[in-house]
């Protein structure tokens, strides 16, 4: 009929494509857990947490401080002092548990959200703000704290980590679980779809590189749910690449510590890579530019609030370790002090000068660039004295 | 003195670099036992071991991405990309990581990475094996881009590239791998890596060329001489940065310039030279800077490449036109 060929009317030739739809978070996910959301210690046949309650108090302090740093940074963004911030809210246990499992000689390759790991490595939180304030591009020295620069391009750092680990092999720094060296690569569930991450898995596998692939599966890649990245649990992908994969409750700092430590030991002793999937949840927006109310349900958030990584440690310390109110108050006071210092430091970050950014394009500057720099300087100087 | 091919000269240069510095390592596909599809790394794995001459998985982004990590660890990776058209899976790592690492770290991380790419046409290859993507790298700040035109340069430039603390894209003119010249390894190089070379002094016009077009342009100059035209031929050698000093000096002398390259015309190396020469040598010019290049098409099927590539006649036609002003 004529009406069927009217321009602009789409022909009905395409059947709807069937794809899995986002599901409610499962109540029972299989993973390694050593501390329940209620603060109860539980046993696992393969992993155990062998440090004492003092260490757990230390984890509580770490997690509370990085949450406070994160909150302050978000506030600074809201007040116009940062251009952007990528919050780690909800992922404190994944980052502190894995970060505290590292030895001094181990090397870290982060994404742009590893503020907690940076804290464990001794990176000044103020250094993290430079990138987000736009005064530099994350110009700390990776050698100072064995913490590489934040990497914005999703997944690229997993290859850098693998190459670095291949260097550790060639330096004969691998072979002992305690004194050897390992590398840890952080990435997320979204990054698991990247070619670079899959190539990193292959390189690490065939060269038996001492690298731990630490995937924080926070369920969301901006607006895309985990169902858009994978049809199987991410940790199971490791089997296809020929190395072990393990899923851990990423909101359980004790389990994350134990699992990461075992993976690192395996790498240091020369047994090759491990994929750790830390099952967690991005409690905040992807970044301060994001609006998660457009794509996810508030019930999800309520569900995950019950699994809060800090609350469960608070409950454990209170009920089972005899930790009193004074300790928690001290930590709160320390957090407030660090936040105040961070704020003051942020506001005092020097304004960058364009002339600084002609430097470092090359180690050996080209004559063309030197000329441009001089022309810019002369041009800028021509405005001096003008209001 | 025995003559050496351009390919064997690169091999000898790689060997010398590996002997001089234990941190120099080779990475690439088929570079070990096979010695690379062009045999440029022949014998190196046998003599330096599998830890230093690494047959990588067949994944180019992986080659460059792991090279970044190795460089951060203190190594000096020399990566072989098997053919020009296969570099693009690694483009993100090259552009976003290799090129910018020194800059974004404010000089705290160096990237002494060399990426060797056999490039250019003329060998009757199937698609993706004959391309000239040098401008796609020269446009990226943080990279340096060079190419050799003869065996002596090949031997020294690869070593200079490896000792550079900046990342260098090293383009090898694959159809000239078998060109021969006498190479005396005891005579140190006359030029730095980013200096151009005046191959033939002349007075009437300058031909700027590089890589595979060097031989073609020298032949054209010989033929033009028979017609009484005295052409200067400059092998640019370095595309980023250009040796503007040598370029300007030549143009101010001859007052006419033709740039020749296999890569396509628009936004090519010739365009940049034309702009720079116009800015700096405007009152010396007798004619606009002309370009003799590949056409603005994808590289054609190999039966067409003789039409596509600049050859002796097209170079001479360019000379005729620049002399006609």
TrEMBL record, chain A:
<keyword id="KW-0560">Oxidoreductase</keyword>
<protein>
    <submittedName>
        <fullName>Pyruvate dehydrogenase (Acetyl-transferring) E1 component subunit alpha</fullName>
    </submittedName>
</protein>
<dbReference type="GO" id="GO:0016624">
    <property type="term" value="F:oxidoreductase activity, acting on the aldehyde or oxo group of donors, disulfide as acceptor"/>
</dbReference>
<dbReference type="InterPro" id="IPR050771">
    <property type="entry name" value="Alpha-ketoacid_DH_E1_comp"/>
</dbReference>
<dbReference type="Pfam" id="PF00676">
    <property type="entry name" value="E1_dh"/>
</dbReference>
<feature type="domain" description="Dehydrogenase E1 component">
    <location>
        <begin position="61"/>
        <end position="340"/>
    </location>
</feature>
<dbReference type="InterPro" id="IPR001017">
    <property type="entry name" value="DH_E1"/>
</dbReference>
<dbReference type="InterPro" id="IPR029061">
    <property type="entry name" value="THDP-binding"/>
</dbReference>
<dbReference type="GO" id="GO:0009083">
    <property type="term" value="P:branched-chain amino acid catabolic process"/>
</dbReference>
<dbReference type="GO" id="GO:0000287">
    <property type="term" value="F:magnesium ion binding"/>
</dbReference>
<keyword id="KW-0786">Thiamine pyrophosphate</keyword>
<feature type="region of interest" description="Disordered">
    <location>
        <begin position="1"/>
        <end position="27"/>
    </location>
</feature>
<dbReference type="InterPro" id="IPR017596">
    <property type="entry name" value="PdhA/BkdA"/>
</dbReference>
<keyword id="KW-0670">Pyruvate</keyword>
Automatic annotation (TrEMBL), chain B:
<dbReference type="InterPro" id="IPR033248">
    <property type="entry name" value="Transketolase_C"/>
</dbReference>
<dbReference type="InterPro" id="IPR005475">
    <property type="entry name" value="Transketolase-like_Pyr-bd"/>
</dbReference>
<dbReference type="GO" id="GO:0016491">
    <property type="term" value="F:oxidoreductase activity"/>
</dbReference>
<protein>
    <submittedName>
        <fullName>Alpha-ketoacid dehydrogenase subunit beta</fullName>
    </submittedName>
</protein>
<keyword id="KW-0560">Oxidoreductase</keyword>
<dbReference type="GO" id="GO:0000287">
    <property type="term" value="F:magnesium ion binding"/>
</dbReference>
<keyword id="KW-0786">Thiamine pyrophosphate</keyword>
<dbReference type="InterPro" id="IPR009014">
    <property type="entry name" value="Transketo_C/PFOR_II"/>
</dbReference>
<dbReference type="InterPro" id="IPR029061">
    <property type="entry name" value="THDP-binding"/>
</dbReference>
<dbReference type="Pfam" id="PF02780">
    <property type="entry name" value="Transketolase_C"/>
</dbReference>
<feature type="domain" description="Transketolase-like pyrimidine-binding">
    <location>
        <begin position="4"/>
        <end position="179"/>
    </location>
</feature>
<dbReference type="Pfam" id="PF02779">
    <property type="entry name" value="Transket_pyr"/>
</dbReference>
